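ok so for the tutorial part 2 we go from a plain amino acid sequence to predicted structure tokens. step 1 is just haveing the sequence, like this:
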Amino acid sequence: MASKGIREIKKILVANRGEIALRIMRSAREMGIQTVAVFSDADREAPYVRYADEAIHIGPPPSAQSYLVFDKIIGAAKSTGADAIHPGYGFLSENAAFARRVKDEGLILIGPSPESMEIMGSKLGAKDAVKKYNIPLVPGTDYAITDIDKARKIAGEVGYPILVKASAGGGGKGMRIVEHESQFDEMLKLAVSEATSAFGDGSVFIERYVGSPRHIEVQVMGDMHGNIVHLFERECSIQRRHQKVIEEAPSSVLTPELREQMGQCAVMVAKACDYVGAGTVEFLLDENLNFYFLEMNTRLQVEHPVTEMITGIDLVKEQIRVAMGHELSFNQNDLQIKGHAIEVRVYAEDPLNDFLPDIGTLSQYQTPKGPGVRVDDGFEEGMTIPIYYDPMIAKLVVHGANREEAIERMLRAIEEYRITGVATTLSFCTFVLKHEAFRSGNFDTHFVKSYFKPEYLAGFNEVDSMVAALLATELASASSKSILNNPGPIAKGSAWKKNRQG
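step 2 — the prediction. this is what the tokens look like for a chain of 502 residues:
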């Protein structure tokens, strides 16, 4: 019998695709909860669709006609009798209007309240919310620029270089570095224009430009009973085009004292918006180890597995329990860091060509295995990477007793990964993991600009491709001989319910 205030969840619709949909469904299954997949035409044959107990077709490949359509997602949930919707990350995961619609329809959103999303969805709103908690902020304005002359004066007081940033921004859009006052007007106009185009909101503000920042984020979790804890930090400084490629936990530069300070600040940020569920508070850390609040992501992060590896906490299960109304299953004193974890994002991108997407068919796809290795993926051999979505193939995660072991384990795992048919970021990740700056922990978000040139990978890629091609030929030959000699039983169809169209 359910406790007072507890609303049991028996079926979850996962309003997402690929690896995150599959990852959520696995945790739900372990909890005895049924799952519903939604899929576009491009994802009809995807593993997550087959894994779910039920699957609903929601339209053409473009996300604006499928994964972002409120009515299709809500309709799929209601037609299958789902109690709750888990949005994963991306798509509708930080859309306050969608969160409100889910609530109005009598469904449970496995995520924070629409009000929390609205406060933290605006960088200016977030700054305003955390002011009273004395959270360190990067010097600059905490309001949208409307008077250019006044803004120019403030920029001079803050000191160049400065950063013009979009309030509704992300992924580096609506952001411009201004080195000198003579550039101010032009860069401001460019930032406003890009912000308007990308987010429909041209609001921008000014911050001091932190020249050698590290990107440190803190995982938080809150429940409906006012309990909020932090689950330590993740270092996310290895980036290209302001997007993360390698993440690790814990950071190699934080002292226990600094970790506690940043953790408590993250908890206060969450309290500032009455946060419920899993969220991430992001900070900039300068070369003198001063930290500044950057923003809060009101959802599960792509890199959440490294936190799971060092804490032993399944964040998705905890999200689901909290959404039902349960208290957190642990408190701050229960948490401790165990070992070290690293995640590399395996993108179908060409590091030799400015990391541009390299869409194609996975002619060979074999994942690494062994102690301390986890692969969260959503593809199988023979599948084509759709052009409509983020080109991430998988997240490769390792755990070791310490940072050195984790690095060596990751290098071994990357070496075992076999992908042909598309270029990937694996060779770049190997380059980073072997680089002295990374191994020593002496790096920042400018790693790519400071240390990487595409030609450094040219020889590596040629050798790697040749070895993979030879191995694929050998395996194909051995496989065909094995089948001829021992055909084995005919494979039977899936035991799961068939896809429902509509």
